[in-house]
Known about the structure:
Chain A is mainly β. Chain A has helices at about 1-5, 10-15; strands spanning about 35-40, 45-55, 60-65, 70-75, 80-85, 90-100, 110-115, 120-130, 140-145, 150-155, 160-165, 170-175, 180-185, 190-195, 200-205, 215-220, 235, 240-245, 250-255, 260-265, 275-280, 285, 290-300, 310-315, 320-325, 330-335, 345-350, 355-360, 365-375, 380-385. In chain A, strands 21, 22, 23, 24 and 25 form a five-stranded antiparallel beta sheet that branches. Chain C has a single domain (about 1-50, about 70-175), classed as Methylamine/Aralkylamine dehydrogenase light chain (Electron Transport Ethylamine Dehydrogenase, Sandwich). Residues about 1-60 of chain C have low confidence and may be disordered. Chain C contains three helices and seven strands; from the N terminus they run H-H-H-E-E-E-E-E-E-E. In chain C, strands 3, 4, 5 and 7 form a four-stranded antiparallel beta sheet that branches. By secondary structure, chain C is α+β, with helices and mostly antiparallel strands. The longest helix of chain C has 13 residues, at about 15-25. Chain C has helices at about 1-10, 15-25, 35; strands at about 80-85, 95, 100, 105-115, 120-130, 135-140, 165-175. The chains are: A mainly beta, C alpha+beta. Strand 1 of chain A pairs parallel with strand 2 of chain D, so a sheet runs across the interface.
Amino acid sequence: MAKKIAASFGLLCALAGAFAPVGVFAQEDEFVPETLTAKAEMDPGPNVFVSVQNWGGGPSVAVIFSADDLHRKGSVSGGSQSHFTLSADGKTAYMASGYYPRYDSGEGEHVLQVFDVATNALTKEILLPYKLAQYTDDLSLLQLSADEKFAFIQNATPATSVTVVDLTTGEVAQEVPSPGCFGIYPMRSALGFSAICNDGAFTTYTLSEDGKTFQSQKSETIFDPDADPIYLSADRADGDLLFISYHANVYRLSDTDGVITKVSVTPIAEGVDGNWGTSGYTVVSYNDANGVLFVPMHSEHHDGSHYHGSEEVWAYDLKKNELLYRSPLADLVAIQVTDGEDPELYGFSLKDGKVYKYDVDPTARFAAKKVAEHAVEGFATTLLVSP
Amino acid sequence: MAKKIAASFGLLCALAGAFAPVGVFAQEDEFVPETLTAKAEMDPGPNVFVSVQNWGGGPSVAVIFSADDLHRKGSVSGGSQSHFTLSADGKTAYMASGYYPRYDSGEGEHVLQVFDVATNALTKEILLPYKLAQYTDDLSLLQLSADEKFAFIQNATPATSVTVVDLTTGEVAQEVPSPGCFGIYPMRSALGFSAICNDGAFTTYTLSEDGKTFQSQKSETIFDPDADPIYLSADRADGDLLFISYHANVYRLSDTDGVITKVSVTPIAEGVDGNWGTSGYTVVSYNDANGVLFVPMHSEHHDGSHYHGSEEVWAYDLKKNELLYRSPLADLVAIQVTDGEDPELYGFSLKDGKVYKYDVDPTARFAAKKVAEHAVEGFATTLLVSP
Amino acid sequence: MAKMIDMLLEWMDTAAEDRARGIAKTSGRRSFLQKAGLALVGGVVLPMLPYDNSNGQAFARGLGEPDELPEDCEYWRYCSLHGSLCSQCGGSVTQCPPGSTPSKVAWVGTCRNPNDDKDYLVSYNDCCGKGGGCGDGCSRQEGDRPGYRYGLASESSWCLANTDRGIHCTVAIVVGLAE
Amino acid sequence: MAKMIDMLLEWMDTAAEDRARGIAKTSGRRSFLQKAGLALVGGVVLPMLPYDNSNGQAFARGLGEPDELPEDCEYWRYCSLHGSLCSQCGGSVTQCPPGSTPSKVAWVGTCRNPNDDKDYLVSYNDCCGKGGGCGDGCSRQEGDRPGYRYGLASESSWCLANTDRGIHCTVAIVVGLAE
């Protein structure tokens, strides 16, 4: 047998021998072979994260772009149907997702993964209760406590609850039952979070210092889920929470007293021709320095059109209750605006498969103009900007 | 605490209660609620299988279409980077693939899965050596023995070998080392297979009856891998094996004596203007009844263009050595023709993401005309037609 | 009805489940009906046959449907659909493709049947345990609400209560009259 | 050279490996050179640094390259490339993106450098262990051969010898002069 095998040795020996006649590592004065390496860290600077959810039984990815010119700097990847968030300093990324060893069938596990953004490296992984919400990504489905010592993770089996993870110990502190409520909106002044409930009220869950017990308090009715349903998307404005309804009514809420109270309701499309409604998934983004809210909008909105892409992005002055400008930015389903005096706006289009950067001009009523773009493969409904 | 929770019970109770006022299972004489079921079996009839390989850490799928009108009848799914084949009667499907529990990182396992085509059900799974070739799908990478009692599976680590699986016992019989050789071409008359080797010869591996040992025999040089490299794609013609080179030379080989011998070489593009070459992955398909070979072709072929999509599909009479017709079928990378007097041709276009059916007219020099099409998501380079 | 409620409560599990079951048993179940109304019927657990060889002809009794049902997103019972049509994947309007498993839970829409001008409750079940996309994707999502009304949430996977989580396509089962 | 051959033989494993090692050690290594030639140099195991902070500037010594390398498929050293460009994925022409791992094995092409009109051997390594696509896909594949010349086979995954099998993108390392 050995003889017959020897007759077919072919490639192997050629491989070994082929190094003789070619110049690899040979005495060529002018040529030094290149070396293959992995880049240790991304270049510094502010970043934009687009969270690409995988619904096909494979890895979800948060793609990291330079906030300056949207060139791709790196990525972190996890399991299926991910939810994603960042630390306030942008240095740490969190992804909750599911790994299914047989992809489309059989059991799996749900984990929270912690990544060092600079190196794109996985630094910690925490096994979660097997209940993670398998839901189109929204920033409200994975949030950190104000002190960033705890992570709150939305469950749905479809019974809803929230897993509280102690990030210091790396352990699950408790599972907070939240039947009929959804979305996680952490408090700023205490350890805990609020959630939107099916009857139009909010419930606020205040946790003990170790995260292991909770007390809950339900608000008065805040909105009408039949007549004026709100999105999960939210942002903070001077400490208050901003939500928006399908019909473009902005709900400004306070959670400072351990329960949600209504501050104001502002119909931003009132008096505008064309039956405009809110458009997309990540639809509430507020520029702090100028008090201007940005919202993707579409005309002739109707039952079922709330997740359609935008025709315009509106800049609305929430201090003066004034619609400032309607920038014609088509097909966006997620936006984020930075908080400074001269804001930058970022948007993601599912239809185009692209992330966009827009300069916003405060001297031109906050009109937005495209300055950069980059392709993004896959399904994304959220994006985040880090310092 | 119970009281605070009770205040937020919302959805749950509404769910329980909501059945009262609506008519579900109520006394409505004229309305009977529908039932939800899974279809037990696909409709009978010949099928076309398009093997969609997943390279992104998720499930590969063999999509099953009606060979009549290409409507989608079902599918079977497995792991990553699959290879696929069928029993001769089309009733049993085989997929070799990898499952990686953490998708893009960490260890995995390679398996051979057996499916009942009618029910799309997984009937058997056999764990393989962790060496399965992670290679663009080709029919030569997973083959059955002539008696269908054994499966032969291509390995590459990148050292090459072939795993022999005893389908009766469901166990791996042996791993045949095949250094420098690739592709599996089972013998018709004995238990074993041939493989193409790096020096242009073939090696034929003849197995013992239990599949557990082998003897190998190397052929004379058959082709020049530098000047006239052949594809992995092959078909049978009157018992012989047909291969084709990048430059559209058809190699007709015999394996009846336990070693490969050259029968003939036919340059099908000789004398045709335009510097035509072979085009795609599954590029050799032979109609038995008429002795006509079908090959996807493109003009002005050059180094590196061999996997490009077709401009035409050529019908070539291998008995008379005559080019019969050049049908203008664009962008195909895989074709299969049926074996009867009135052949049907099927093709897959990566560019279009579609499978096509063409009627072939024997009275019109085997010209092919599109009669049906269907979208196919994903990356495919092979297709199969079953009775 | 008691049994139906028990089936619905299969949604609930572990700690959250036990507390919630307690709530459900002790609180006035019907007090929410008027404001919650039809919109909250989601999550219905349907009577399921293990297999069906009727080729999907077992549907549509009393609905005045044509013999051959439309295969596009505009078909009336797809009014809240968000997913791929199983009728294009080897199944039918009410049948999962062979080898897949109907989801145990579902979201629900209320759709007007143009054949009799009545509103029907439609249960949208995902077919689970099979990989790969298939069929036209529809996103009509009428009556859709975010997860705070989970039974109307078309943005959820509804294979989430099955052992096999892979989502293949979605069927639309008429389960009740809405008035 | 003996050490290099040992490294090359890391391709081989278990039964097949042991037999093959025996063959390699006992047969006339150089007898194949003339007919196998350069085409069979594939599978070179490259000297790898664990990390590099040079931003990819450590390349191109003696190649007469411009300061800024092109980012499109037509760049000369991509002549046999089949994959996505790491330079568009957070890496560079010769650097894997942060958090990914260079493949242990590679296929090899022979490309003409227009800056000095010399032919160079280029090793195409995949960067492994990271999910998701990125960058422009290139399919020039000059000199590509099917798996019977595996060291030239651009249709293989080259993460196949790494623990982490996810393929992210491909780099092009100039490892030798071809004449």
